[in-house]
């Protein structure tokens, strides 16, 4: 049976000195229950996983949704495992679990590099991979590595299950391909992408708890000493995570060199449309794309099996 | 005068402390409550008390989450307050209509400025309204306060208040604000304070100098960002007395401001400071207290008000941006012969502590150097921006950044090593300060030498590492203890209990620095007992004596001296009691190791408890002392600034090692070695804590923090997402060395250490950046983007040449 109650009163958290407004709180144990609740209540329901984004939003929201559905207790959303399809992350896996996973260290090290840059220890302990992707801000830190490793997402809802590339899942700022009655079940990095040379680098205004100015990630294969199937993903430089396809094209089939990587960095900068704001100028962000792309390519090369 | 106390060098290096931290963490058992078990560390029971690494009595409740801050406090029927703030940075208020807001659910009362008996306040000029009634001068000005049953209801009601404004022209740049054509914010001039210091003949000396160097330096506006925002609760006792609980850092003067604005006698007002969750100078001023008092009076119910983080940014005080022009004449040997300084201080919308900050900044702007010919001209200017006021360092971090950057530029041009040029010019014992004060306990050279030795300072050390280039930078400073000229006294009471333990009453406030621990150690030392034998009762205007407050790095020196004198009086009663018991004269006695004993005959002794018991219950003369202390100062001449503005000064040097990424501009501060003088370190662990905390503020000022405004004077980043402060990951390794010194006017030779710790950090980091990549950052903060731009400009100006 789902746990339910009025949040936050049910948790003894409500007091008169709080600006958090009451709402109905449901915590299903299974995906089927969650889908049923969403089907009944969409679009007046919101999902809560780690709560690191949503609770902050709720605290300052002028209106609260009719129902908040806490999916953190759903067992199908848990776990990191190697399947015949590839490396599977349940959508409820926390960033800390990713950082501590031997499987991830062995097969997709850059995922750990990205997880380490998310928020603070507390955020990483609570925040989930699925939550990070579904929130879908342009600077989503988990996005670039997964896209550079061609990850696919599994979505479930009242009409059944869909699988799509993560690149298509990201539709726009804070907008994903999820329908109101759908949930993100898992994320799979395909088998053939595991263990390839991959590197991630985030640029922020400081080291700890930084919002990305630019996220860069590259993954490569080597074919007889030549670069093959290069994938470059850039975050925070366009409405959603993008692939620098021209830069990839420039690299494929060529022998790696520092000059070539610098040229690819310049090319990647022509493919991005970073914003100009008080955090940094567009010009500085372009400098970071050039440098970041060059560096993640060089590191991906170092990590590539020969 | 008390004998000099030997203080042991730090026995545990940072590495071993870190190892201890890495060990297994003992589980906190829920059923031990909040720790009445005998967990007092041995060190708290040691005598002599001074020089011990005594632990803080408040650390255990802090760690257990049991400390009660204002936000944790509640009273029956308590109401919550929210403040409606201005929509404009500069506007006339034409009308205020609260009728719709008063009809909102849960709203019990509203308050406007017209209802406040005396609406303005301020430490120098009373130019700041508690709630603006005729004009708003920055976006943070409060206009209406609402009290409601819940915080949310108060918040919701704000939207229903109708305020009609006539917008006026804004002025955001202090240099613009100085022009005749600028809109006037108060009265008919925006320049509201000027300070001049003159010594020798600066123009002649500049004309005669071998070389003359010029430089302009600018700093930014930053916030204190205490974890606990400003908070208070006001309630009226059935007797008609007002009781205010507040996060104020200075309750005596806070009560005076509350009494003045409410037009009430002081004896009817009780101000109790709670444990303050961070101050850094930002809690020296009243904010909500009189507003809550009036709302409580209107409603007959207790009223609480807690600033949001945005309130904290937009309406509390901040650090002054300075524009500083330096002209320095030097001989070819690197001896500075003349220095001219012009400072323009962005004083924000109200004076607050700007007038005094300007004075301190002007005196310190010359640097800790012997210069015979000086002219400093400093002005504070109103702008339609957030109020600037007291903040850790009080003008010193700004001028230190300027004079120490300038010093490195001079050294480089003359081909003199940065450490050497400082040693050549630095103050020595008996140096004549810019105001003509003869300086004592001067250890600036010692601090330079210790920092250099511990850092491993040598010219041209380790330079490059792939894209990153390594650099080292040095900066030294001087800093005064206590107010500039103004009286800033403290009074204290020391009561010896009949078992030989003692209670100290002081009006100062613990704002996180560990001051009550230090003050307890001073009292314990004088009475010959241990820190654990003392209880310090503080910060309640009804029960504790006058104190100027936790400000100006003065607590150890001024309050400490008052407590020392009060303890001495109590001790005299113990000596008078013990003398006939031991058959000697009182002058032959000393208090040591919890005993009153005959000097040089320690076997002839009585326990302090036995003596106190005798004094209290046999002789009927309890051991009690009260005293006050005020530093000796001489007023400054208004024309030349000559005088003795401060009781004493401290000196320090910090050296930074940085890596600069030439392709991204990112600066990583790897380590900072700090050598600080504080006179006798009463508690070396707390000195180290102050230095580490001060450096974190200095790193923020150097590389990250800046309050940004749009063209209308609205803050762009009033939140912790976009106001970038260093996190633990951004902090360098900090190595603290305490420079040996002894000030004969301080308690057991102690001076102070709170503010100076944040002063030289930005300067040494900027010099390290120069050393690494050859670019001079003249405006703070040195963000990665700014550093990269400077590197790109360097490369365009000198293609192919690689900076040294």
What's a quick, concise take on this entry?
The complex is a heterodimer of chains A (306) and B (804). Chain A is an alpha+beta fold and 306 residues long. Chain A has 12 helices and 15 strands.
Total separate domains of chain A:
3
Q: CATH homologous superfamily name of the largest domain in chain B? A: Aldehyde oxidase/xanthine dehydrogenase, molybdopterin binding domain
For the secondary structure, the number of strands of chain A is 15
Give me the number of helical elements of chain B.
19
Oligomer: heterodimer
Helix content of chain A: 25-40%
Termini separation of chain B (Å)?
A: 52 Å
Count every beta strand of chain B, where a strand is a DSSP E run of 2 or more residues: 29
| CATH architectural name of the largest domain in chain B | 2-Layer Sandwich
Task: Evaluate the radius of gyration of chain B.
Answer: 27 Å
Average of the residue pLDDT scores of chain A: 93
Proportion of strand residues of chain A: 25-35%
List the uncertain runs of chain B: 7-32
- Which of globular, elongated, flat, extended, rod-shaped describes the shape of chain A? globular
Note down, in words, how this protein is organized:
- The complex is a heterodimer of chains A (306) and B (804).
- Chain A has 306 residues and is an alpha+beta fold.
- Chain A folds into 3 domains: 3-70, Uridine Diphospho-n-acetylenolpyruvylglucosamine Reductase, domain 2; 76-192, Uridine Diphospho-n-acetylenolpyruvylglucosamine Reductase, domain 3, CATH 3.30.465.10; 196-303, CO dehydrogenase flavoprotein, C-terminal domain (Enolase-like, domain 1), CATH 3.30.390.
- Chain A is built from 12 helices and 15 strands.
- A 5-stranded antiparallel beta sheet of chain A has the order 5-6-11-7-8.
- In chain A, a hairpin with a 2-residue loop joins strand 13 and strand 14 (226-235).
- In chain A, helix 10 (245-251) packs antiparallel against helix 11 and helix 11 (258-271) crosses helix 12 (282-303).
- Chain A is globular, with a radius of gyration of 20 Å.
- With 804 residues, chain B is of the alpha+beta class.
- Chain B has 19 helices and 29 strands.
- The model of chain B is unreliable at 7-32 (pLDDT under 50).
- The interface between A and B is medium-sized, with 22 and 33 residues.
